[in-house]
Amino acid sequence: MTAQTGRQLSLNAFLHDTGHHEASWRHPQSAIERVDDITWYQEIARTAEAAKLDAVFLADGPAWYGSGYRPSHEFEPITLLTAIATVTERIGLISTASTSFYEPYNLARLFSSLDRISGGRAGWNIVTTFSEDAARNFGLDGTPSNEDRYARAQEFIDVATKLWDSWEDDAVVADRSSGDYLDVSKIHPVDHVGRYLKVKGPFNAPRSPQGRPVYVQAGSSNEGRAFAARNAEAIFTAHQTLSDAQAFYDDIKARSRSFGRNPDHVLVLPGISPFIGDTAEEARELYEYFNTLTVPAYGLDQLEKMGGVSLRHLELDEVVPIEVFGAAGNVLDNQRSRKQVIANIVERDRPTLRQLLHRLAGGRGHNVVHGTPVQIADTIQEWFENGAADGFNVMPPLYPQLLEAFVDKVVPILQERGLFRTEYTGDTLRDHYGLPRPESLYSADLALAAGK
User: Fold this and answer.
1) Which of 63, 138, 143, 60 lies closest to 103 in space, CA to CA?
2) Are 196 and 155 in contact (CB under 8 A)?
3) Residue 383 half-sphere exposure, CB side, CA atoms within 13 Å?
4) Which of 72, 211, 362, 407 is the most exposed place for a label (fewest CB within 10 A)?
C-alpha cells in the first residue's frame, strides 16, 4: 500500500502487566515474576520511546475483582508513571483517574506534578467508573446511573480546568529587586459551588508545561460520546470492524464540531492487539496457541463484567443467542459501550461461546489481529486513511516480545510509508499529538472583558 503525505499516525503503548491477552502470564516466556518490579515497566516504556511512540498508557481499576486466574495487583498509575518519567525523556505518560472517586483538588495536584516532573508529558484518561466493587472501596453503596456519573464528570472537569488555569502563565515574576515573587493579580479564586462539588481555589502551583494535561476519554456509550466530543483531546475506543470504526469516527468529529471545537484536535485512537509472525500461518498459530492457555471460568467472569450478561448456562460449543443482549447492538440503546461491541460480534459472526471467549481474551473487545508485519501495517493504514482512526492504542498480547515485534517490524514499515515519525519533533505530549497548548481560561476571560 502507498501512503498519503502530511498527516501522521499517533501510536500509544498500552501497558498491562505481562500482556493484553488474558492468559499471557501462562505463556512460558512471560515475565510474570517481574510484574511487581518497577524496572519492568521502565524497560517497556524505554522500548516504546526508542520507537518514537507518542505515549504509554495505564488503565486503572481501584478494586480487586475477585479472580484467581490472572494477576490483578496493580501499581497506583500516577506513581508508576512518575517513576517512568525519571528514566525517559520524550514519550507521553497517560494515566486513568476516575471522576467518581477523586476530588478535583487532589487530582489536579497529582497531574500537575506529573506534568512538571516529566517536562510536559502528562495525559489524564477521564473515566467515570461503573464498577460496584470499586464504589464500595470509596464508601459508596453502589454506582450512580450513567447520566449522573457523566453529570458529575462534567462538573469535575470544569473545576479541574479552572484550578489548572487559576494561575495565569506570567503570574510568577520572581523579581529579586522588588521582593515580588508573584503577581497575585494574576492568580484567581475558583469559588465553585455546584451540584456535586464545592471548591474554593485557587490552585497552589503555577501552570505546568502543557498548561493542563492532555484530556483523554475512553467511554463510547451515548453519554460517553457526548462527553468526549465536548471535552476530550484523544479518545480511546474499541471496534471490531472498519465500518463500525468509521461510524464512530464520523459521529465524534461531527459532535465535536457542534461544540465549536476543531475536530482535528480530537484524536480517535482505537485499540489494536496484534499477533505478529514472519508468515501469516505463524501468526495464526501464535494466536491459536494463546487461546489454548485460556481458562473458560475467567472468560465468563470477564464477559459478565464487560457485557452485563451471564452465559454460564451455555455449553462451550453452543452458539451464543443474540437475544440475551436485548437491544444492545442498536446504537440508539448504547448505554454500555463494550456490551454493544460484544453484541455486534454475536450478531455478525454467530460464534459459539468458546469462540466468543477467545475473541474477547486477546483484547477485551478491542480489535485482535494476526498476520505478518506488512499485513498489520496494511490494517493500520487502511483504518487511518479511510476515516476510522487518527492512530491506535497498541495492546501487545505479550510483553515485551510482541511490543518488540511491533516496534521492530511494523513501525519501520509505517515510517517507510510516511505515516509515522522517525524522530520526535517536540518535547510534550501535546506536541506529539499535534495539539495546541491551551491558554488560561482566566487570561482569555480577562482579554474578552477588556475588548481585546
Assistant:
1) 138
2) yes
3) 30
4) 72
Q: How confident is the model at residue 63 (pLDDT cuts 50, 70, 90)?
A: confident
CB 41 within 8 A of CB 84: yes
Nearest to 235 by CA among 16, 19, 438, 435: 435
Given this model, what pLDDT does residue 331 score? 45
**Residue 328, C-beta contacts closer than 8 angstroms, at least 6 positions apart:** 307, 334, 336, 339, 340, 342, 343
Q: How far apart are CA 28 and CA 281, in angstroms?
A: 21
Q: Which of 43-57, 175-189, 320-334 is least confident?
A: 320-334
Asked, for residue 26, whether it belongs to a domain, the answer is: yes
CB 415 within 8 A of CB 381: no
Kindly tell me if the per-residue pLDDT of 267 is higher than 80: yes
Those residues with Cβ within 8 angstroms of residue 355's Cβ, 6 or more apart along the chain or in another chain: 349
Nearest-angstrom CA–CA distance, 203 and 79? 21
Residue 333, pLDDT score: 44
Asked if the structure places residue 209 within a domain, the reply is yes
Read off the CATH number of the domain in which 86 is found. 3.20.20.30
- Phi, psi of 393, rounded to the nearest 5 degrees: -95, 105
**Helix pair 38-50, 77-85: axis angle to 10 deg:** 60
Section 409-416 average pLDDT: 98
3-state SS of the chain: helix, strand, coil percent to 5? Answer: 45, 15, 40
Enter the C-alpha cell of residue 102.
Answer: 477523586
Query: Is residue 257 situated within a structural domain?
Result: yes
Element of type H or E holding 160: helix 146-165
Q: What is the mean pLDDT of residues 353-367?
A: 84
User: For 395-406, how does the pLDDT look when each residue is reduced to its tens digit (9 = 90+)?
Assistant: 999 999 999 999
Half-sphere exposure of 214 (CA within 13 A, CB side): 29
Q: Is the pTM of this model over 0.90?
A: yes
Q: Give, in order, the Cα–Cα distances in Å from 195 to each of 165, 199, 250, 262, 324.
A: 21, 12, 33, 29, 37
**b/e 210-229 (16+ beta carbons within 10 angstroms → b):** bbbbbbbbbbbbbbbbbbbb
Residue 408 resides in a domain? yes
- Domain residues for the domain of 106 are 10-144+153-160+205-292+365-449
Number of domains in the chain: 1
State the pLDDT at residue 61.
81
Distances (CA, A) of 163 to 182, 392, 420: 17, 31, 35
Q: How confident is the model at residue 298 (pLDDT cuts 50, 70, 90)?
A: confident
CB 128 within 8 A of CB 152: yes
Residue 237: what are its φ and ψ, rounded to 5°? Answer: -145, 165
Using alpha carbons only, give the angle 433, 437, 441 rounded to the nearest 5 degrees. Answer: 140
